[in-house]
């Protein structure tokens, strides 16, 4: 009976040692992603409902408070791409700066996370040859997964942006993250 108790303790400690080894990479990280931006204005007059190729670059700091737990802050710059409605002669380019709080957990090399933040989005449009610029600051959130390979990780995300006058603004992306 004593042998089984000792074996259970050794297995339990081994489990957490493995999680600590395969856990979150703490410290400064940099990354870049490419993906698809999607916008639907929902406006019956100036309707734009389209997808476009986009990208983002980001930097963050993972505090590494507990093994296998990610708690981070992150700054992003994003280019959603160009969206248009040729019937109404509308073309828009959208870029955004964001700040996020990120929380997640690691299951070996695979990690899952959620993020909540604030974005400042710039919209540069040409409507019938007239330049129209607008800016909006609002909330944003997302979910993602990563596969950690030492200091390098492959990361996939889906992010949603709340923007005045726009029904849906989202981005799905895949990229790389390097932790220093």
Q: How does this structure look, described?
A:
The chain is mainly beta and 180 residues long. The protein has one domain (2-179): Beta Barrel (Porin), CATH 2.40.160. It contains 1 helix and 8 strands; from the N terminus they run αββββββββ. Strand 7 and strand 8 form a beta hairpin.
Provide a quick synopsis of the model.
The chain contains one helix and eight strands. With 180 residues, it is mainly β. The chain has one domain (2-179): Porin (Beta Barrel), CATH 2.40.160.20.
Please mark out the parts with pLDDT under 50 across 5 or more consecutive residues, or reply none: 10-23
Q: Return the CATH topology.
A: Porin
Mean pLDDT: 84
Strand order of the largest sheet: 1-2-3-4-5-6-7-8
Q: Give the radius of gyration.
A: 21 Å
Determine the number of helices (DSSP H or I, runs of at least 4 residues).
1
| Class from helix and strand fractions | mainly beta
Distance between the termini: 47 Å
The CATH C-level name is Mainly Beta
Strand content: over 45%
- Global outline: elongated
Assign a percent range to the helix content: 10-25%
Oligomer: single chain
CATH architecture: Beta Barrel
Order of helices and strands: HEEEEEEEE
Number of separate strands: 8
Main sheet attributes: strand count, strand direction, barrel closure: 8 strands, antiparallel, barrel
Give the count of structural domains.
1
């Amino acid at each position: 009976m004593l042998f089984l108790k000792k074996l259970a303790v050794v297995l339990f400690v081994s489990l957490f040692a493995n999680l600590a080894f395969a856990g979150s990479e703490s410290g400064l990280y940099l990354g870049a992603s490419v993906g698809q931006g999607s916008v639907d204005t929902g406006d019956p007059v100036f309707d734009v409902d389209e997808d476009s190729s986009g990208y983002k670059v980001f930097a963050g700091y993972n505090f590494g408070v507990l093994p296998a737990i990610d708690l981070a802050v992150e700054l992003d710059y994003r280019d959603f791409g160009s969206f248009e409605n040729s019937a109404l002669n509308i073309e828009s380019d959208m870029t955004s700066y964001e700040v996020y709080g990120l929380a997640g957990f690691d299951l070996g090399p695979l990690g899952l996370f959620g993020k909540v933040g604030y974005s400042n989005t710039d919209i540069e449009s040409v409507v019938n040859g007239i330049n129209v610029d607008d800016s909006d600051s609002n909330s944003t959130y997302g979910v993602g997964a990563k596969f950690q390979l030492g200091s390098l990780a492959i990361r996939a995300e889906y992010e949603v942006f709340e923007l005045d006058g726009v029904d849906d603004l989202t981005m799905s992306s895949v990229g790389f993250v390097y932790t220093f």
